[in-house]
Specification:
Elements lengths: L8 H4 L15 E8 L8 E4 L2 E4 L1 H11 L1 H4 L3 E8 L3 E8 L2 H4 L24 H17 L14 E5 L2 H13 L22
Antiparallel strand pairs: 1-5, 1-6, 2-3, 4-5
Length: 195
């Protein structure tokens, strides 16, 4: 017997934390967090204050590092793959300062892709493309359909050097602070997916 779910706008509405009139493709720095589906600890483990990546974590890390190859005006300033989430600082530079513009599809499957509202080169498009590429790479040797990511992501516009340095430090110290991290779940949700 199935359970009937009725849409309740008060319960099921995801409230956007994005600034309504802000152009997320504009030059600047952005801190973002992307979580694994159900916050499952599938990317690796923290031991002795250091992150040890599993196979999936290595794929995710490589896809993070490849972002500038596909969005040539984007710099990955700092990033870390944690057991069930990723933190990254993206810097969007002027197109003529960093490169020729945004590229399309590439050999490892990353392609500029448009999502709801974000335009080309926006933080939403960059992160959506990263998530799609990592999912594609993780699913390659297996039956397709493994859900890798939680829907959406959290991002914050970095407004000054003080904030930039604070986010860099947060990323660097994240493994040491794992037990206190809001994404840490004691015992952790584990996925049946082999890492």
């Amino acid at each position: 017997m199935g359970v009937s779910m009725v849409y309740d706008p008060d319960k099921h509405h995801r409230r956007s934390i994005r600034l309504p009139s802000y152009d997320y493709a504009s030059v600047g720095a952005y801190f973002a967090t992307v979580c694994a589906h159900d916050r499952a600890r599938i990317f690796g483990e923290v031991a002795d204050g250091a992150m040890h990546l599993a196979r999936i974590g290595n794929i995710v890390d490589e896809c993070l590092k490849a972002i500038p190859e596909h969005f040539e005006n984007v710099i990955v300033d700092a990033a870390i793959v944690m057991p069930n989430h990723v933190h990254v600082i993206l810097v969007i530079a002027k197109r003529d300062e960093r490169a020729r513009g945004i590229t399309g599809a590439s050999g490892n499957g990353m392609a500029t892709r448009r999502f709801i509202a974000p335009g080309p080169g926006s933080v939403g498009t960059i992160l959506g493309t990263f998530k799609a590429a990592a999912t594609r790479e993780v699913n390659q040797p297996r039956v397709k359909g493994f859900i890798l990511w939680q829907r959406s992501f959290y991002e914050r516009v970095i407004r000054n050097d003080r904030e930039m340095n604070a986010f860099r430090e947060y990323i660097e110290l994240n493994p040491l602070n794992w037990r206190k991290d809001e994404h840490h779940v004691e015992g952790g949700k584990q996925s049946g997916f082999q890492r």
